[in-house]
Design goal:
Bound molecules: zinc ion
Radius of gyration: 29 Å
Number of helices: 8
Helix content: 25-40%
Number of domains: 3
Oligomer: single chain
Structural class: alpha/beta
Largest sheet: 6 strands, mixed
Amino acid sequence: MEAKRPFQDGTRTSAPWEVASLDLNVGERRLDIRVDFQRGSSLPCPVCGKQSKAHDTEARTWRHLEFFQRAAYLTARVPRCNCDEHGIKTVDVPWARKGSGFTLMFEGLIMMLVREMTVNAVARLVGEHDTRIWRVLNHHVDEARAKQNFSKVQTIAVDEKSYRRGHRYVTFVMDLEQRRLLFGTVGRDGDTLAAFVEELKAHGGEARQIQDVCSDLSPAFIKGIQKHLPEAETTFDRFHLMKLMNEALDSVRREESPSTPGLKKTRYHWLKNPVI
Ligand SMILES: [Zn+2]
């Protein structure tokens, strides 16, 4: 049993589960860890937690973190219990979530990697198809997002970004106090603000709590803010104001340059000098 202890700890198996055998395939650089439940043990119904004996079992395999630079797989016969109230149900295992082919620790590794590189790069690195990586990512992002609370958000910024070579746009809404992204959606019209308000409500907030909005001078955003965020004051952001000021200044310089020789070759002096 002592030789199996590191694997018991490393796979987070605990009673009634135990590591039953280890099979190292040197040629395939693969380690198979077989986990089993103790004979005669009772298992909890996944709905109510009531203990009952195993009704039958089904063999399952999960990819786990590497051991000794070898791909490791956990295999177990997963029991179905027969609950008086809920009938025959597959029990939950402590090392993986329902429906996943990876252990929780392997999913943890994936979630760490996707913060640093693209999903395609992660898929190549761990030798899995990218759709499996996306499934893990989507599950954990949805789960974390469902828990987010927007009830204290008061100050937001709205901005658009183009993608697909500038042919399409997405709008993002940021929380300026907590410095976090609240919402993103395709499009850049006033309706994107209506969609944001729906998201706000879904996370415990309401339109009236938004006091300040920072946006560019897009008429669609201005209209959308007035319509959907009734208590909000709008501040136009400095970047877009400066851009407009520079364009206006440059057009005046061009117009006056023929009659005012001193303005010749001064374009960059105007652009570089602070205006605000
Ligand atoms: Zn039950």
